[in-house]
């Protein structure tokens, strides 16, 4: 690990003042400490934000608000989250392990870095880690990589599960930086890689995520998260689907659909949402609605199975949620 | 070179682990873990070698009920501090990348991975390691159950399994076989002792209630 200074400020203002240059904010540490050991991230200063007043879970008529420092496990077990936004609780519980969920913060989860093996290996080229060095995954081992939103510079997936659920629910991220506070739709927060895959989101220098909000959505009670992976637990997604359905009289009135494991960022599917409206809650109807879910996909040498797996994942998730 | 100095703490005596065990024997190392090292840790500010880096952080924490003060290199993980500074070698270093669970300890009563926890970030907190579970020679019910059910083969993952299992029961995630499998999935056992680990947990949970 490279040497760095360490600061543990107690106010948001002070944290922002201590940040800058090559600094990194530390919350749960499950991404940062790992990547510092691998020398993929080499900050000259680590600003520990765990003492900042950024906790709290609120579920009320306005929706859901999560403080950025709430831990994944605490959000997952919150009774209000479980009953009114089950897709959020399920996405969290299907992520990582209980030890990691006890550590990892909600804000940090949204900012976790890709699991692409070439990004994590400093002996190989990677445009995300070292801009302009090339992409080893394009011609290398790419079975787990993205098929949507990719470019010739980068095919790495965004690894978060809960970000997929939150994008489906129109979540916003609250940000605080040197120029004050602002908020952005989470769906717009992430950038496509294009030819600058090292720029993953729209955070400004020294800016912090302070909270996450989800607008009220009564039928989010009828939601769920399905994750398909190489082992049953403690593994990243090959494909995943976050689904919420407003069903009345056996017919879909409204739908929210986003997918993970396939995109360079959490991937909302508005065309599938539209195609679901007015359909019966039958498997055959779902199959028709998701027929074009992977349109525009660019499969790689080892992941040509992903478009079909994605459609089947969606049908299974819709069937499960439709029966709730 | 300064920026690439060793990021793990030097052993408290300047001895290699192999040399230490070779000279004193495992039994002595085991008893030393219970008493001497915490006093050594208090003397750490004066003894911190130059190659540790220039920006040491004063850290005070409680480990297994005892107060510990030390000057920590910001790069030291809790795992390395426990093993190399405090000689609490019951906590194991498996992958050192947050993937295997061998380093599981409790911080403020919650199970976490000590390999991804910076020592500087647990200032003021309470840490429990496997050495802190037993009451003297009287083992914790989970320790006894692991022995009774052969919940290990090589034993390397065992302290992490036990720390995770104790927390699991407290979380209320030990009620069904499916829950035990799911919520213990962060602790990998290369010997494949999983069925016996599950039996041990089911046995111990009754006694822990």
From TrEMBL, chain A:
InterPro entries: CO_DH_flav_C, CO_DH_flav_C_dom_sf, Diverse_Substr_Oxidored, FAD-bd_PCMH, FAD-bd_PCMH-like_sf, FAD-bd_PCMH_sub1, FAD-bd_PCMH_sub2, Mopterin_DH_FAD-bd. The keyword Cytoplasm does not apply. One of its GO terms (molecular function) is oxidoreductase activity. Keywords: Oxidoreductase. It holds the Pfam family FAD_binding_5. The keyword Cell wall biogenesis/degradation does not apply. PROSITE patterns: FAD_PCMH (PS51387). Residues 1-219 form the FAD-binding PCMH-type domain. Gene3D superfamilies: 3.30.465.10, CO dehydrogenase flavoprotein, C-terminal domain, Uridine Diphospho-n-acetylenolpyruvylglucosamine Reductase, domain 2. This is Xanthine dehydrogenase YagS FAD-binding subunit.
TrEMBL record, chain B:
Keywords: 2Fe-2S, Iron, Iron-sulfur, Metal-binding, Oxidoreductase. It comes from Actinacidiphila guanduensis. Residues 57-133 form the 2Fe-2S ferredoxin-type domain. The keyword Chaperone does not apply. This is Xanthine dehydrogenase YagT iron-sulfur-binding subunit. Gene3D superfamilies: 3.10.20.30, [2Fe-2S]-binding domain (1.10.150.120). The keyword Iron applies. GO terms for molecular function: 2 iron, 2 sulfur cluster binding; metal ion binding; oxidoreductase activity, acting on the aldehyde or oxo group of donors. InterPro entries: 2Fe-2S-bd, 2Fe-2S-bd_dom_sf, 2Fe-2S_ferredoxin-like_sf, 2Fe-2S_ferredoxin-type, 2Fe2S_fd_BS, Aldehyde_Oxdr_Iron-Sulfur, Beta-grasp_dom_sf, TAT_signal. Pathway: Alkaloid degradation; nicotine degradation.
